[in-house]
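User: Predict the structure for this protein chain, please.
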Amino acid sequence: MPNVVAITHVPFEDLGSLAGVLAERGLSVQSVDACSADLRNLEPLRPDLLVILGGPIGVYETDVYPFLGYELALLRRRLESRLPTLGICLGAQLMAAALGAAVYPGRNGKEIGWAPVSAGGDLSACPAMVELLAPEVQVLHWHGDTFDLPAGAKHLAASARYPNQAFALADHALGLQFHPEVQAAALERWYVGHACELGAARVDIPALRAASNQYAPALQQASQRFWHRWLDDAL
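Assistant: Here is the predicted structure, written as structure tokens:
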């Protein structure tokens, strides 16, 4: 049976809607907690798909969180071998760093909330992305850091605040700064787990919850199509 390894950084930022799609396609999933597992023991070339999920830390904080160095090394080997790899939020930033691009605090402040993404200049490199660009679709943004586009990567999507929202390497690797995987009910765990960040950013949680209830259903439908189309090409 084809297998997927999903590396998490906080338990509530999980595969979300992607989990059901993977199960539907007969893919088994192993979750690995980056914070407690020894990533040096994880074989980077073995999974059919490697997924790196989000978290509230910075790629550049390897002195504070040493496991990030092991995670970057794992990603370098994986990407050099051109094997299917997906990064979401922190995962996309780790991919960018592993490819030699700079990752740094965004100069336009935190981007937290629902907003659309627009097509990048290289959209044809990932046809599945059109599913997330429909007029009725807004995606969840939740990040303070951003990154430069890695050398050789194709630019797929931008937001009004930050230009690098998605990139691809051929048809095997995809980095997404935003969160297409989220589901409205599961976001209650995010509001609690990220309470300090939301308070510091003065985000109105009831308003964010209302927006999630409004926009998450359309995103989930679009994401189902997106995941299937991308996996058709990547695997």
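The chain has one domain: 3-234.
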